[in-house]
Design brief:
CATH topology of the largest domain: HIV Type 1 Reverse Transcriptase, Chain A, domain 1
Number of strands: 6
CATH superfamily of the largest domain: HIV Type 1 Reverse Transcriptase, subunit A, domain 1
Largest sheet: 2 strands, antiparallel
Structural class: alpha+beta
Strand order of the largest sheet: 1-2
Shape: elongated
Number of helices: 6
Distance between the termini: 103 Å
CATH class of the largest domain: Alpha Beta
Strand content: 15-25%
Helix content: 10-25%
Length: about 240
């Protein structure tokens, strides 16, 4: 006991609870004249593996040591959603019938048709025509612009004009490396009366979907060229 050797008359192993932790401890019995407390806990208990002894100014605490404990996570595998599932004969026939019915609407390049859901109208707050000189293009860009304009004229998307309004064009590269002809309408936009009607809220549209399970998105191949212009707005563009 301390630096003094004592002879124990007997010992017993009992479960003892320390701060909610139960440990099996060997208890050695000595004469009461050598003890001023009922029990003395030795360092062999405090330093036991899996136990941590915390001592502060006012208290002492024995806790479980979790520093070396591995965490086991319960991982649930989601059931895979098969998107490209094969069609049975009846479904394949129905799909081919739909594709054949709407074959004229599957296109590549510039669309020659327009939508019938509405038209574009431009209202100005000034009667002064907007016209600017063309932007400078390289020889290769000029040839490419001529090809694009010829294609649009042949398909009836645009028409020749002698309008007092003229906005410059420029070529912009698409992600696939091809050229997109853009019109710089910024000066025309400056004198255009803005449409103040608010756009629908996306979250409202999502709420309206309800419990529907199948969704699709429809887009115009060349939306800028497929929205018809009102007759009195054609000279502006």
């Amino acid at each position: 006991l301390g630096s003094q050797e004592l002879e124990s008359t007997s010992y017993v192993t009992l479960p003892i609870e320390f701060d909610g932790i139960t440990l099996e401890v060997d208890l050695f019995v000595v004469a009461s004249e050598f003890m001023n407390t009922p029990v003395i806990v030795g360092t062999d208990v405090l330093n036991r593996e899996g136990v941590r002894y915390v001592r502060t100014r006012d208290s002492q605490l024995l806790t479980r040591d979790t520093s070396g404990t591995d965490r086991v996570m319960n991982i649930r595998a989601d059931t895979p959603i098969l998107v490209n599932t094969p069609l049975v004969d009846d479904e394949l026939q129905r799909l081919m019938a739909i594709i054949n019915e709407f074959a004229p609407h599957f296109i590549s390049g510039t669309a020659a048709s327009t939508v019938n859901t509405g038209s574009m109208s431009i209202k100005l707050n000034s009667d002064v025509p907007v016209n600017y000189r063309p932007y400078r293009l390289s020889h290769a860009e000029t040839l490419r612009v001529r090809e694009i304009i010829k294609d649009l004229l042949d398909k009836g998307v645009i028409q020749e004009s002698e309008s007092d309004y003229a906005s410059p064009i420029l070529l912009v590269k698409k992600k696939d490396g091809s050229d997109r002809m853009c019109v710089d309408f910024r000066k025309l936009n400056d004198i255009t009366v803005k449409d103040r009607f608010p756009l629908p809220r996306i979250d409202d549209h999502i709420d309206r979907l309800g419990r529907n399970k199948y969704f699709t998105s429809l887009d115009m191949a060349t939306g800028f060229h497929q929205i018809p212009m009102e007759k009195d707005s054609v000279p502006l563009t």
